[in-house]
Write a sequence for this structure.
């Protein structure tokens, strides 16, 4: 159940991430956006279905390489990573061999999980250019994601919050200044969590995607496929989903980390996968609140209709045929 919830939160969270959605505005035609989304879904499916297999291969390679091996005879990659402090060997039984077992009291090897992506090519004895490709791919992914998120954060605060809600008469120059301040603040906050992460990289990513799944994804789906969905339902669902998911993560990761064990988890779901439950709560609350609140204005319903069938899409399709 936990693995299913984590996988669902990752995949549905991807669909709800704002920096992914904003990319659809960078193509000139509806057809291009649809083709782009199709390719994105294919590559996302490949990523999430192969990642567990790669993780299993990496763990197997590591065990076969270091278990019961003489410490003095360990390969060069081990010595390199040991200098970083991300791999540590403590000879508890003074046998001179690496005892790598599941029991923490007997295990003599401490490995930081974050190094496995970069260390795995070295462990598998792949050529240096493969290691370079992995590092370049990771850096490119980080930069592109950061750029998209900074764009969304700065625009949301300066335009959606300040311009549309708090100060409609603000000048374009003032809006630009606020956007820059928001982007700078986001960089500082992200830098802090980069230096002091709440968990290893994979878990931290799972938290982010779980929060996206519990907040944005239900609103996007119901907003597009249900013209009756209104702002009261959308806001209520988002608040419920993100509040529940955040509280669950904060409780087990910061307030009571000693209780972060399967027997204390809700339905046996870890903090990394709880965004799936938050998403379900979001759907339920949004639907219930929508039923007891007024229908959206006529111009909003027309807007949703235009999103479903963009203006000129039919004519463009007929011309291409």
């Amino acid at each position: 159940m936990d693995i299913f919830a984590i996988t669902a939160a990752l995949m549905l969270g991807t669909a709800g991430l704002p920096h992914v959605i904003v990319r659809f505005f960078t193509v000139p035609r509806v057809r291009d956006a649809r083709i782009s989304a199709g390719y994105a879904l294919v590559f996302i499916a490949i990523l999430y279905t192969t990642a567990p297999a790669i993780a299993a291969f990496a763990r197997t390679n590591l065990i076969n390489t270091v278990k019961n091996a003489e410490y003095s005879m360990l390969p060069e990659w081990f010595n390199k990573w040991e200098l970083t402090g991300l791999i540590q060997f403590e000879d508890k039984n003074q046998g001179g061999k690496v005892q790598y077992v599941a029991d923490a009291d007997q295990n003599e090897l401490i490995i930081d999980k974050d190094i496995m992506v970069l260390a795995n090519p070295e462990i598998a004895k792949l050529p240096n250019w493969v290691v370079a490709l992995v590092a370049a791919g990771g850096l490119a992914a980080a930069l592109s994601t950061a750029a998209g998120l900074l764009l969304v954060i700065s625009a949301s605060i300066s335009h959606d919050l300040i311009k549309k809600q708090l100060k409609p008469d603000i000048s374009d120059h003032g809006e630009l200044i606020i956007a820059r301040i928001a982007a700078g603040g986001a960089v500082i906050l992200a830098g802090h969590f980069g230096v002091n992460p709440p968990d290893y990289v994979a878990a931290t990513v799972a938290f982010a995607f779980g929060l996206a799944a519990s907040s944005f994804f239900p609103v996007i789906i119901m907003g597009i496929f249900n013209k009756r969905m209104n702002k009261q339902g959308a806001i209520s669902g988002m608040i419920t989903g993100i509040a529940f998911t955040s509280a669950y993560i904060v409780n087990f990761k910061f307030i009571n980390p000693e209780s972060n064990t399967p027997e204390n988890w809700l339905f046996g779901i870890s903090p990394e996968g709880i965004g799936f439950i938050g998403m379900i709560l979001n759907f339920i609350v949004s639907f219930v609140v929508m039923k007891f609140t007024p229908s959206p204005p006529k111009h909003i319903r027309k807007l949703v209709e235009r999103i479903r069938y963009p203006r000129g899409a039919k004519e463009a399709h007929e011309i291409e045929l």
Observations:
- The chain has a mean pLDDT of 82.
